[in-house]
Amino acid sequence: MLSGDSKADQNAQQSKEQAQERLPKVQVMSLVAKKINKNLTFYGKSEPDKIANISARQAGQVLEILVEEGQFVKQEQVILRLDKSDLAAQITSAEALVAQYQTEYEGALKLNQQGLQNKVLTMQAQAMLQQAKATLVSLELKLERTEVRAAFDGVINKRLVEIGDYVGIGDPILQLADLDPLIVRADATQKEVQGLEVGQATFAHVLNDKTYPGRIRYIASVADDSTNTFRIEAAFENPGMKYKAGFSTQLNIELPTEPAMLLSPAFMALDEQGNIGVKVVNDDNIVEFKSVNLAKSTEQGVWLWGLGEQANVITLGQGFVRAGDKVEPVFTGTTSN
């Protein structure tokens, strides 16, 4: 009986060893992650906060142009004057009519109160007075509009008329650009937009190789139909509007730190759906496919997010095993990035 039991134990041990021999061997390196900043990079150009075409609100001939292209102006500053024609005389006449109708109305009101005039005549006198007042206000508004004023603080980007030109109501006169703040617009993918929020700090790098701090002021709530991306806007202070719009700009946004691992691109693979990832071995020696995101690329390799704080990465033999396979890992050491 003892001899039989011993032989059975030997057979079981032999079967176990044969099963282990049939497991594929893979070379594995145990990696420990390092927390690095997650940066998003976008490309665009600096643009004005807003641009307005200042148009004539009163018809007339251009008498004075008080600004030059490129000049900074303040809100409500007079930038152009039109011919007032006979508006001053019309206003004087309208003021006299208002005074006349005011006297007539007051007289009609007293007669009505004494029962010497019916109410209809009194109401007619009141209507004539109100019409005269409305005419006066309209003439004063026309006179005011012969002086064209800046709608906001900005820079005269274009001058579209010359002295002597006749402009009609609605004709463009000047183009005014607000360069404070300067705006950089870019498009974020579905994955990138998840880590963004309004008010988040950002940095702009322009051709002069300087860096300017700013903040995200807008994130689209609906993706663009053609590109499936989300429009974002970042604003950068520009006191005195000394920096110009139109420069190519690199927009960098720093996200919270996340654990990442430095690997050779040769260790990366694709799953059946075409996702980029890395094959690792878990505690039960089972192969798992971990999807990863590229953090940044360096001369030493690529930094990848998605592997957690520690991972046993297959560095040799990953092409011969699939997720779910049991393997015999051969460890080559532990590396701390």
Question: Main attributes?
Answer:
single chain; alpha+beta; conserved putative lor/sdh protein from methanococcus maripaludis s2 fold; Elongation Factor Tu (Ef-tu), domain 3; 3 domains; 6-stranded antiparallel β-barrel; 4 helices; 23% helix
Explained architecture:
With 337 residues, the chain is of the alpha+beta class. It folds into 3 domains: 23-35 and 258-336, conserved putative lor/sdh protein from methanococcus maripaludis s2 fold (Beta Barrel), CATH 2.40.420; 41-50 and 179-257, Elongation Factor Tu (Ef-tu), domain 3; 84-145. The chain is 23% helix and 43% strand. It has helices at residues 2-22, 87-113, 119-144, 190-193, and strands spanning 25-32, 34-47, 50-55, 60-65, 72-73, 78-82, 147-149, 154-159, 166-167, 172-178, 182-188, 201-205, 211-219, 230-236, 248-263, 268-270, 276-281, 287-291, 293-298, 301-305, 310-316, 328-336. The chain is elongated, with a radius of gyration of 39 Å. The model has no long low-confidence stretch (mean pLDDT 87).
